[in-house]
Hints:
By secondary structure, the chain is mostly helical. The protein has a single domain, classed as Recoverin, domain 1. The chain has helices at about 1-10, 10-25, 35-50, 55-75, 85-105, 110-115, 120-135, 145-155, 160-170, 185-195; strands spanning about 35, 85. Strands 1-2 form a two-stranded antiparallel sheet. The relative contact order is 0.12. The model has no long low-confidence stretch (mean pLDDT about 90). Bound molecules: calcium ion (3 copies). One calcium ion binds next to loops. One calcium ion binds next to strand 1.
Amino acid sequence: MGGLLAKNELSQFQKNKFLHEFNTFFDFNKDGVLEWKDLVNAREKICELSGWKTGTEKHQAIEAVFSDLWRHLQDDGDENLDGRITQDEWLAMWRQLHFHYLDSKKEKNACVEEVEDSIPRWLEDYIKYKFDLLDRTADGKIDVDEFEYVMTDFGVSPKDARTAFLLFSYNNETQSNQTTIDLPCFRKLSIEYFRSNEPSQLGNFITGRLDFT
Ligand SMILES: [Ca+2]
Ligand SMILES: [Ca+2]
Ligand SMILES: [Ca+2]
């Protein structure tokens, strides 16, 4: 029985990916806890990077995205309701999603494609937000220069960012031009990042880090 539970648990490899996401893209003041002010800092940094001034349509749109994101994170992640999401609470939230995913797969008559494609609303919005953040020219595609530009701003080395992009855009069958990534492809790779326990999967490189083992 213990063996069965352990089999379903998040692996260290998966935990490393979730913690990397937490530390790089959420916990802005690097104090190990996620709070509303981290999201405000992230939001303002992005507005500054993009030249979106307070009161403009773009600024208001991203305010709404971040408010929604925080509400969902609190609902799903803040177990003791103190307005702070610790790393343990963060991992517990992903563990719940992981268990839910494994349960759905076991359900009778489960449609495999639907299960693989199903993620919570907030994660859907978050992936879209990240895509928009990376797509600096707003043409619906991410290229290697855009990826490097944004990732280095989040502390990734230019070399790692470029290598990661070349890896995850490699052999991308959904694109005619293999040097760019569109939203459906980015979404698929992101789901792989949040779900896969297989180090060779291309989605693992979507945050610009090359090794989580
Ligand atoms: Ca923090
Ligand atoms: Ca908490
Ligand atoms: Ca672009």
